[in-house]
Known about the structure:
Layout: H1 12-17, H2 20-27, E1 31-32, H3 52-56, E2 71-73, E3 80-86, H4 91-109, E4 114-120, H5 125-134, H6 139-151, H7 153-156, H8 162-172, H9 177-184, H10 187-202, E5 208-209, E6 211-214, E7 217-218, H11 224-235
Helix pairs in contact: 2-10, 5-6, 5-8, 5-10
Amino acid sequence: MKHNNGYKMMTFSNFVKNGIMLLLASMLLASCGEADSDASSKTADAATTKDNTEVSGATDDADKVGAYGDLIYGDPDAPIEIIEYASLTCPHCANFALTQLPQLKEKYIDTGKVKLVYRNFLMNNVDLAASTVARCRTPEFAKKMHNILFRTQRQWAAGGDPAGAIAAIARKAGMSRVEFDRCLQNRDMQLHLTKMTKTGSTKYKVNATPTIFVDGDKLDIPSFEKIEEALADILD
């Protein structure tokens, strides 16, 4: 199928055949909501590194178009850093984004006490497709798309035509089908997100989503209550 301008529409099956999936399949051992049984549940350097490019996989991406690197919610200079590794296809991540994050935002992020650093942790090819498209433009557009994709997760993540469903959602956010197809083929972003996932998995022992670090400590349970408990110890 071709658009009027001659641009060939990429089918989801072609996307799956992309070589990036071989890289993804070779590294992912995680599952949504799986508990971390590793004794190293606290990794102080995971959330407080001085080298964000190493953590997020943002190396050499400064000159590329798209939302590369960490997505920052709140004041970048806030004294306390919370890092979230999440998958767009994970129901637990959607629940956190829709029920826990608003509380965190109102009480701590919007007041300048805390910044939230969001990092993608890919779980499957549908997740890779959605994440690649969401980050196609600016960080603000990526945040908007993440919110919409979490709210509509049941409609696109498990359906028979995920690419079509994601394209429809992107269209409502102002992205044409032509742009969507081009974004879906962005190999630089695919590699970037794969590297971000690999870094989270191998260096920071992330093996479940969502995984939350509060000022360097990995939480056993990613909930607002547990985050608030951790923040209370720091703020006191």
